[in-house]
Amino acid sequence: MKNVTYGLIIITMILFLGLGFFQSPLLANTENEIEAGEEVLLNITTVNKNQYSMVKSIVLNKHNVEYLSENESEIYKFKYNEDIINNISGRDLFIYSGINNEPWVNDFIAELKKGDLGIINMSRGIKTLTYENGDENPYYWLGINEYKIALYNVKSAIQEKDPKNKSYYEENYTNVINKIEESAKEVKLELEKYKDYTILTNTNTFDYLLKDLGLTSVNVKKEVTRKILEEKKLDENKIIFVKEKDPIEIVNIIETKKEDGKVEETKKTNEEKLEVPEVEVKKPLDVKSVELIRWDGEKTLVELALSNIKLVTDTLKKLPIVTK
Known about the structure:
Largest sheet: 4 strands, parallel
Distance between the termini: 118 Å
Radius of gyration: 29 Å
């Protein structure tokens, strides 16, 4: 009888342990499913307000998004310290423009404590234009196609950090792109009438935008406008002059340490002055001109691009349709 009793006890213990053994993984799996289904709250920092607007167009009301600089001048004057380094190091994403738009950014990134921080260069994959001296033109964010690539980089980075809402971000991205392409398509149809016309400009700021519109542009910096017309055999009635409204002079201070230990500062600006000799002033050209805007704190980059495109189109419409 005792043997039977002991046998029943042993069997009961085995069954009890067996239930416990098989139930534990089920509880663990349930907890993992809850964690995987939870919403994440990302902390995202951009360098400037334009990048902030790009991020907001993808995330809308999700996540915490902040920016370091209100305008372009502040970007170049920006100074970081240990507190800023620690703050950004604790974020989920840090987004910047690249291509010398932030002259301090490489040193800044080198000092960040990476951890889980995602560092995103929006210019990745963009085919840059260059100045005559070979330097890269940093104003890609004013171009239509380049803006779409930059926005794609932003979208992809956010999707990687929050895969649960991947389709949500994809939909928002598609909505922005569709709006741009729809507006650009209408404009390009209108500009077909002016494909043989030429844009003269004294700035490289809008090179990306003009290229995307399929317009022929000639830079007249350091050269006389009438001389250009003669050399290029351009019809005065088939050109417009594009310049920048209220151009911002970005001054980079280049410090050179001399042998005596003193530091010599050299200022290098982002724009060269247009040289116009007196003879040109006496004999002005009758050319329609338009001022485009590089930076507007009240508009997103999409709104700014579409506004600049409209300015160019409206100016061209003032010209007579000249046929060969």
